[in-house]
Design brief:
It contains 6 helices and 14 strands. By secondary structure, it is of the alpha/beta class. Helix 3 packs across helix 5.
């Protein structure tokens, strides 16, 4: 019996403000180390530019290129039978994700994001809109190449191509395009609007308004704001670092 190939896929597009190639290479290196599978880094050229405003710890607001369009092509771009799809700002620190290879589900993603600082900044992201449509996160996904997965990615692409229609239908902003929203719609449709095909733990994340003070041998030192004061915590484990500037600052320590 032929064994299935397994690997990690990271897709990125460069921007004027951030070195996404460097982030992707760091993400791939750590994924290979902890998951013991190969990782492929592929640059994609978006058909249109996307922009987003990030709030940083000093209160600064920065409008940046956020060229996340094209993630719906991951199924076609992956060289593996089974794939862990990662955002380049997701840093793997253990082998938890490797346990999902060989899953009974064709596609798995997160349905909750966990603020590792305990500040609960993602409490408003349980639902995609005010009409209680449940949120899914495109940051980390597992999939294998099946007809079910193809249908999901086809719908993901269709939501992108008709984003204004879906924005009006579900009641979210037409700009910027969010993969999380497009995936949420596709995943719910393909799953029969049931809460299945999700990871059994929440997505560990650090918001863009918080930062990394230091990293040493698998231990994060994180700084966050709470009630107008600065606080520091230590954390160990995988981490979705939304403050990409902060991640680039300590990348040489990872």
């Amino acid at each position: 019996m032929t064994s299935l190939s397994k690997g990690v896929l990271i897709l990125y597009s460069e921007s004027a403000q951030l070195d996404y190639k460097s982030l992707s290479d760091t993400c791939a290196r750590l994924a290979e180390k902890h998951l013991d599978v190969p990782a492929s880094v592929i640059e994609i050229t978006p058909t249109q530019r996307n922009f987003r405003t990030f709030r940083y710890p000093n209160g600064e607001l920065e409008g940046t290129e956020w060229n996340n369009i094209g993630r719906y092509d991951a199924l076609n771009l992956s060289p593996y039978d089974e794939t862990i799809l990662l955002d380049c700002d997701y840093i793997v620190q253990n082998n938890n994700l490797a346990n999902y290879f060989g899953s009974d589900h064709d596609f798995i993603c997160h349905n909750h994001s966990w603020d590792v600082t305990g500040n609960n900044l993602f409490r408003h992201d349980l639902y995609m809109t005010l009409n209680w449509f449940e949120m899914r996160w495109a940051t980390v996904c597992y999939f294998r190449k099946t007809e079910h997965t193809k249908r999901l990615f086809d719908i993901w692409r269709s939501v992108y191509e008709n984003y204004e229609y879906y924005a009006n239908l579900f009641g979210f902003s037409k700009k910027p395009f969010r993969n999380d929203f497009a995936l949420s719609i596709a995943h719910q449709i393909c799953g029969g609007y049931a809460n299945t095909g999700t990871f059994n733990y929440d997505l560990p994340a650090l918001s863009s308004s918080d930062s990394i003070l230091d990293y040493n041998n698998g231990r994060w030192l994180l700084k966050y704001e709470y009630k107008d004061s600065h606080n520091v915590i230590r954390y160990t484990g995988d981490l979705h670092v939304m403050n990409k500037r902060s991640l680039l600052d300590i990348a040489d320590k990872l």
